[in-house]
UniProtKB/TrEMBL annotation:
Family label: Belongs to the cytochrome P450 family.
Protein name: Cytochrome P450
Pfam families: p450
Record key words, sorted: Heme, Iron, Metal-binding, Monooxygenase, Oxidoreductase
Species in which this protein is naturally found: Paecilomyces lecythidis
Domain of life: Eukaryota
SUPFAM superfamilies: Cytochrome P450
InterPro entries assigned to the protein according to its UniProt record, in alphabetical order: Cyt_P450, Cyt_P450_CS, Cyt_P450_E_grp-I, Cyt_P450_sf, Cytochrome_P450_fung
Cofactors that this protein relies on: heme
Length: 479
């Protein structure tokens, strides 16, 4: 934030012989990343990521056929019709999560992880994760952790900037072993999930799921088998941890801001009552809850610097030259915490989103604003925004309808930077000195570290409804 104040809406950080350009104003984002998105849609070539991630289309440039095919196939996954179909699967998972929290409240952190991973494995591969431990959900989060560590520039030397490092002997290159381990864990999961589906299909007992459609349309989509494997991987990577991080952040916000929790609960109680679960249709009629959700996106954005881009041509913005090949960073964190745009940006106050469309303070020019900076920009904007929003809507309604969250004596429930895993570059670039000395772990996402809290069911009838619904689902599953 201090750097932004000093250097303005756009500034450059020199890293060896390359430029990292930080873009922090709505006008610059609109011009450079939205309108000129065809020239700013490349991705940086990270040796560590590429080696650890295989044919992941998110790492490819716009011109690359792997990106084109992957993006097309993913768009097919995320049509509104499909999202409506997936909602049935999601609801089953959300009932299990409520029941899990009811029965083992101390395990909430992993219940949230299980749920978000299981939604993705169910929809993509037709495979549910009934538990967190010893399931694909646990394996998935292990892979994410290892992968995030490959993004930690403090831990390993910048191989793309010093290419000769690729040739140093193995015993001098501890990152080689890390990459191999990451690849091993992730390949075992993603090749394994696909192989398991194919075996079930052969045996005639596969569930209907997205990967079945992709395999059937593989020729038409022009995808290799490995691309299909990593398409599943992209969906898991992009849809699993984001949902989990948001819901965990939401619980932390409830622990830290009890007034906001109470107001949202009152609104939900007036609308929904005790005899039914919240439904997706309720969400549009809950203005305070929607403001609360927006405030969490603003206060603790899941991807505070999005996913970095590359300028594929020299560009001019005002009197600022962005040389071809520069890394471009959409600084959502800086934008959301800019005191020129948001009144007291470090204060958590959902009401700001009831007072103005984007939560901005009076007099701010909102011409270049939109309500989805948290989902990126231009041609690479998150294709899963609607799915992410639905997930968040359902979980926030459900959890506040069912439970009250309060801090536990001696428990961990802070919402400061030490409570999150954040990538080191981000800490170095944006956060205060205090954060530099924090014990944060690497990761592109602001993922909360494990926390603990008291969770109390709010109404007996609601708890009974959860149990009954969960038993009915479990009975169906065992038939
Ligand atoms: C709250 C949830 C989510 C948030 C905040 C979020 C945010 C983002 C952001 C900031 C980007 C980078 C965009 C850019 O480069 O400008 C991104 C990319 C992406 N997201 Fe999401 N996302 C969420 C959920 C999802 C879901 C549920 C899916 C799919 C199931 C998904 C799929 C993707 C994919 C495939 C990309 C890469 C796009 C590309 O490189 O072309 N996301 N997301």
């Amino acid at each position: 934030m201090d750097w932004m104040k000093e250097f303005g809406e756009i500034f450059t950080i020199k890293l060896f012989n390359s430029n990292m350009i930080i873009i922090s104003s709505p006008a610059a984002i609109k011009d450079l990343l939205d309108i000129r998105g065809a020239l700013t849609g490349g991705r940086p070539k990270s040796h560590m990521q590429r080696a650890a991630q295989g044919l992941h289309f998110v790492l490819e440039d716009l011109e690359n056929p792997i990106w084109k095919r992957g993006r097309k196939a993913i768009t097919r996954f995320l049509t509104t019709d499909n999202l409506n179909v997936y909602m049935a699967t999601q609801k089953v998972e959300y009932v299990q999560m409520l029941n899990d929290i009811l029965t083992q409240p101390d395990e909430i952190y992993n219940h949230i992880r299980r749920t978000s991973a299981s939604v993705m494995t169910s929809i993509v591969y037709g495979k549910k994760c009934l538990t967190f431990k010893n399931s694909s959900a646990e394996e998935y989060f292990e892979g994410i952790k290892l992968f995030n560590e490959t993004n930690d520039p403090g831990a390993y030397p910048p191989i793309e900037l010093l290419p000769w490092l690729r040739y140093v002997p193995r015993w001098l290159a501890p990152w080689t072993e890390h990459i191999e381990r990451t690849t091993r864990v992730r390949n075992r999961l993603y090749y394994g999930l696909l192989a398991e589906f194919e075996e079930k299909k052969k045996a005639g007992n596969a569930e209907a799921c997205y990967i079945s459609y992709v395999l059937e349309s593989r020729e038409k989509l022009g995808m290799s088998y490995d691309e299909v494997v990593f398409l599943g991987g992209v969906l898991m990577d992009a849809g699993g941890e984001t949902a989990s991080s948001y819901i965990q952040s939401f619980v932390l916000a409830m622990l830290n801001f009890p007034d906001a929790q109470r107001k949202a609960q009152e609104e939900i109680d007036a609308m929904i009552g005790d005899s039914r679960f919240p439904s997706f249709e309720d969400y549009k009629n809950l203005p305070y809850l929607r403001a609360l959700v927006d405030e969490i996106h603003r206060y603790r954005p899941i991807l505070p610097i999005g996913l970095p881009r590359i300028a594929t041509q020299d560009l001019l913005y005002k009197d600022y030259i962005l040389p071809k090949g520069s890394m471009l960073v959409l600084n959502a964190w800086g934008l959301f915490h800019d005191p020129e745009l948001f009144d007291a940006p470090d204060v958590f106050r959902p009401e700001r989103f009831l007072e103005s469309k984007y939560g901005t303070k009076p007099g701010v020019n909102i011409e270049s604003f939109r309500n989805n900076f948290a989902f990126g920009a231009g041609r690479r904007i998150c294709p899963g925004e609607e799915m992410g929003r639905r997930t968040i809507a359902m979980n926030t309604m459900n959890m506040l309808w069912a439970f009250t969250f309060t801090p536990k004596e001696g428990g961990i429930s802070n919402m400061d930077m030490n409570s999150y895993s954040v990538v080191c570059t981000l800490r170095l670039v944006f956060f205060s000195r205090a954060c530099l000395t924090s014990s944060s772990k690497p990761g592109l996402e602001m993922a909360p570290k494990p926390f603990s809290c008291n969770i109390v069911p709010r109404v007996k009838a609601r708890a009974e409804l959860i149990r009954a619904e969960f038993e009915a689902i479990a009975a169906c599953g065992s038939e």
